[in-house]
Specification:
- By secondary structure, the chain is an alpha/beta fold.
- It contains 8 helices and 8 strands, in the order H-H-H-E-H-E-H-E-E-H-E-H-H-E-E-E.
- The N and C termini lie far apart (45 Å).
Length: 217
């Protein structure tokens, strides 16, 4: 393993600096899949639980949820602790999806590059969508959020995370204001920065994460 906890022989820039090269990201997470959860536990990673805590009050029993960038299934575990939901997962990493399938908790799993839009799901297919730890790897965030508004029914909820070092750089405040101004969504909450990977020496307390919660108009 490298210092950042990623797969042996890999470069930490793909994780810390957030490559938007889809092929590189796919290879990186395929290589890391087997030790991914063990590493994140050492880093005290709680973003899935924090995201679910934000989203859960807006979910009815049996809600249809899209887990965007589901990885090995940590969000499904956190959702399962809150109730019974129908969860579909989508991710670029085939090896991560294999582990998510073995774990259970998903109605359907889809391998797909999240930078290729539209996503391979129907209009209004979900009551909610969640994207945790994903936007760092997306070159153009706004088209993806717009497409999520297509995938989630009117009145449904979308939550996503973005690192504090990328929040302004990626223009998230302006993007949310623009989408809200267009009547596409309503911003319900943007959290104060929360710990992201406090146990990772490359992140520590310097890089934290904000959670956004929106309602589709």
């Amino acid at each position: 393993m490298t210092m950042d906890g990623g797969p042996a022989g890999s470069s930490s820039w793909q994780f810390k600096n957030g490559s938007t090269d889809s092929e590189a990201v796919e290879t990186y997470y395929d290589d890391w899949a087997e030790t991914y959860e063990e590493t994140l536990e050492k880093w005290h990673y709680r973003a899935p639980q924090d995201s679910v805590a934000l989203l859960a009050p807006h979910l009815a029993p049996g809600a249809r949820i899209l887990d965007l960038g589901c990885g090995t299934g940590l969000l499904a575990v956190a959702l399962g602790a809150r109730g019974a939901f129908s969860i579909d997962g989508i991710d670029i990493s085939a090896d991560s999806l294999k582990l998510a399938e073995q774990r259970g908790g998903y109605a359907r799993l889809i391998q797909h590059d999240l930078q290729k839009l539209p996503l391979p799901v129907a209009d209004d297919a979900y009551d909610a969508a969640a994207s945790v730890g994903v936007l760092t790897y997306i070159e153009e965030v706004e088209p993806l959020v717009r497409d999520l508004c297509r995938c989630v029914r009117s009145g449904g909820a979308i939550t996503f995370t973005q690192r504090t070092d990328r929040w302004e750089e990626c223009g998230l405040p302006e993007m949310l204001a623009r989408l809200e101004g267009e009547g596409l969504l309503t911003v319900l909450q943007i959290t104060e920065p929360k710990p992201y990977l406090p146990g990772n020496p490359d992140f520590g307390e310097d890089i934290q994460v904000r959670h956004s919660l929106c309602r589709v108009a």
